[in-house]
Structures are given as structure tokens and as C-alpha cells.
Specification:
By secondary structure, the chain is α/β, with parallel strands linked by helices. Helices cover about 15% and strands about 25% of the residues. The two termini are about 20 Å apart.
């Protein structure tokens, strides 16, 4: 066990970053980690249903990514719309920040907004003259490491096939591999966690316990709670699903709220017993969560093997099933 951020680092060749999706969602590779035997296998995601046992429940996050990236009419300001705080008021990230001081204004599609507050981490509270139509003015906010603007195909491929509840600024990427056909073959339930911008942020403190985790909004329906409580083994699809389940525990009760849970070694899991997840950035809270679930040494050994085997990394990349 280590609480040093530096111990969750690895070096990834640039060419292994998946900047575009594969032609077919379920064509991704799937590395399988068997925790008890410390054993690694290589499969395709299309084989995932064969790992779902009788009594299992696969739990997925049905959040939908909003077209949250927009540019001012003069092209000088980039905004990432993080959270609606009213009909016309948004919490946003802005670039460059020096042009968006308190009282500064920005116009998007003819809609003028004014900076009314600057938060400690740099977000701006911007009040617009009328509701912002992001569907008309915004773009899908691909992660920075893709180093490209979203294209027409990303509007569909950077959403899961089951995305329905609008509010995320990043996709729950473990869910991107699923097709309607695969979903139909497995017992499953949905909860919602709106993935925030914090998912892109690395841990900057040397001691990871000093890292301030971002809060994200979640919702669990009565049907989802009943399904989780009646199930045997819980198979979580993604770290976002895991964070909600581990925040609430079991028996699960239907509710809405926020979670800022930071799962890292030596955390003891209470609900999740198997985890499907993508390959995560070095020194990220997501890599630390996976390390808590499978053990840091085993996870870093698996990452090293994934690099040797030329797996595709990050949002549009391959996946890992930990059982």
C-alpha cells in the first residue's frame, strides 16, 4: 500500500492514446484480471457476457454528455459549461481566465453573459440574459488529451447507447463498449452520476490523502435500488458507478445527492465485487480507485503488460475487467 502520488505513475507511449473510436463499440480488447490468482488474460469485450454469472447484476451509469464546450462570438473565449445553477446562470471554466475577471462579459450566439463570481478553483459563475441553448451553440467536450475538436461522429460515439439523463461533461467511458445486443444478454440496472471536469484532473499533492476530491451529482431510482438489493454479485461498469455504490452502501436506498468520495488504497469495498473499467491517466484518482480494488502492484503490472501488448488507452480505448 502506498499513499504517495508518485507511486501511481507510469509512462505511456503517445501512440497508445486512443484519439478516435473503433468502428464497432464491442470490438475493443478486454484485459481480464483475476485478483485471487493474480492472473491476467486477454480477451475481447464481445466476450463480456460470458463473465456475468447467475445472480449477478451489472450496474451502469446512464448520464448523458451535454455539448458543454462553446466559444464566444468573437472567438476569444472558450467556455466549458459545468453546471446549470438556474435558468440563465451557469458555473463555467473559461480560457483565458485573465479576460474573464469579475464583471467581464462574454457573448455566445448573441446571448450576453456577465461574470458574477470567481470560485477558488477558478470556475466562473456567469449570468446570461436568457437561457443558453447548448444544443445549438455547444460542442461535445472531448478530453484534452485527444488534442482535437469533436467531429460529427463524436456526438454519437462519445455517448453510451443507454445515455439518457443530461448533465455530464465527460462520458462514463467504460460504458462506451456496450451495444444494445450485449445489454440484452445480461441482467442490468442503471443509476446516474453526472461526470464532472474533475475527472480530468491529476492529483497534484505528493501525499494523495491531501487531494481535495471534486463532488458530482447522482441519482438512484427505486427500481435500481431494488435491483441492487436483490442481486448477488454486483458488477460495476466504471469508476463513476463504483463511487455512487460505495458512497451509499448496501442495502441501497433510492435518493439524489452528491458524492466527493475518494477511493484509494487501503479502502475496503462494501458493494462492488467486480469492475469493468478503461485504462486511466497516470496519477489520477481513477487509477487509485482501481488500485484499491485490485492492488497497486497488480494493477501497475497489468498496465505494463497492456503497454507491451499495444492496448489502446483512455476514453476511446480498450477496457479491463477485474474479477
Amino acid at each position: 500500500m502506498s499513499l504517495l502520488t508518485a507511486d501511481y505513475d507510469y509512462v505511456l507511449p503517445e501512440e497508445l492514446i486512443a484519439r478516435h473510436p473503433l468502428p464497432h463499440r464491442d470490438a475493443s480488447r478486454m484485459m481480464v484480471l483475476h485478483r485471487a490468482e493474480q492472473r491476467i488474460e486477454h480477451h475481447l469485450f464481445a466476450e463480456f457476457p460470458s463473465y456475468v454469472q447467475k445472480g449477478d447484476l451489472v450496474v451502469l451509469n446512464d448520464t448523458r454528455v451535454i455539448p458543454a464546450r462553446a466559444y464566444s462570438d468573437d472567438g476569444r473565449i472558450e467556455l466549458l459549461f459545468l453546471e446549470a445553477l438556474g435558468d440563465t446562470t451557469w458555473k463555467c471554466l473559461v480560457k483565458p481566465g485573465k479576460k474573464m475577471r469579475l464583471g467581464a462579459s462574454v457573448t455566445i450566439a448573441g446571448n450576453r453573459g456577465t461574470v458574477e463570481k470567481i470560485y477558488p478553483e477558478g470556475e466562473r459563475l456567469i449570468a446570461f440574459e436568457r437561457p443558453v441553448d447548448l444544443d445549438a451553440a455547444g460542442h461535445i467536450p472531448l478530453p484534452p488529451y485527444m488534442e482535437r475538436e469533436a467531429g460529427a461522429a463524436d456526438a454519437e460515439r462519445y455517448q453510451t447507447v443507454f445515455a439518457r439523463t443530461r448533465g455530464a461533461v465527460a462520458a462514463p467511458t467504460a460504458g462506451l463498449h456496450f451495444t444494445p445486443g450485449i445489454l440484452a444478454r445480461i441482467p442490468h440496472a442503471f443509476l446516474t452520476l453526472h461526470v464532472g471536469v474533475g475527472t480530468f484532473r491529476s492529483v497534484l499533492t505528493d501525499d494523495l490523502t491531501l487531494h481535495a476530491m471534486h463532488a458530482e451529482r447522482f441519482a438512484v431510482s427505486p427500481a435500481a435500488a431494488d435491483a441492487v438489493n436483490a442481486a448477488g454479485r454486483i458488477v460495476a461498469v466504471g469508476t463513476t458507478t463504483t463511487r455512487v455504490l460505495e458512497t451509499l452502501g448496501r442495502p441501497l436506498s433510492p435518493q439524489e445527492g452528491t458524492t466527493d468520495i475518494f477511493i484509494h488504497p487501503p479502502y475496503q469495498f462494501r458493494v462492488v465485487e467486480a469492475l469493468l473499467t478503461n485504462f486511466h491517466l497516470p496519477k489520477s484518482t481513477l487509477l487509485m480507485l482501481v488500485s484499491a480494488f485490485a492492488g497497486r502492484d497488480f494493477v501497475l503490472r497489468a498496465y505494463a503488460e497492456a503497454i507491451r501488448e499495444r492496448y489502446r488507452f483512455y476514453s476511446y480505448g480498450d477496457c479491463m475487467l477485474i474479477v
